[in-house]
Design goal:
Length: 83
C-alpha cells in the first residue's frame, strides 16, 4: 500500500458492499485507480475489485483483481522496482 502512495496513485471507490457481523465481515470494493503527470496527462488507468475479510474494523485478508497488463505497464513506467 505504501508503494501506491509513494507513486502518487489516485484510488477512487465506485461501490462498496459490506455484509456480516463486526467480528467477521465481508467487504467488496469496486473502483478505479489512475496516475497522471504533473501536466494532467494520464500515465496509468485501471479498474479494480478488492474482496476482503474484516474483523472489528481491521482488514484481515484481501484479494485484488485488476488488469495485470495495465499493472505491468505501470511497473515499467515506474522503473520496474516492484518495491
Amino acid at each position: 500500500m505504501r508503494r501506491f502512495v509513494d507513486a502518487g496513485l489516485q484510488i477512487f471507490p465506485d461501490e462498496v458492499v459490506v455484509k456480516g457481523f463486526p467480528w467477521r465481515m465481508t467487504v467488496c470494493i469496486r473502483g478505479t485507480v489512475s496516475l497522471h503527470t504533473s501536466s494532467g496527462q494520464p500515465v496509468y488507468e485501471n479498474r479494480y475489485v478488492i474482496w476482503g475479510r474484516m474483523a472489528w474494523g481491521l482488514l484481515r485478508e484481501y484479494e485484488v483483481y485488476e488488469d495485470t497488463q495495465q499493472t505491468e505497464s505501470l511497473d515499467a513506467c515506474l522503473g520496474g522496482s516492484g518495491s
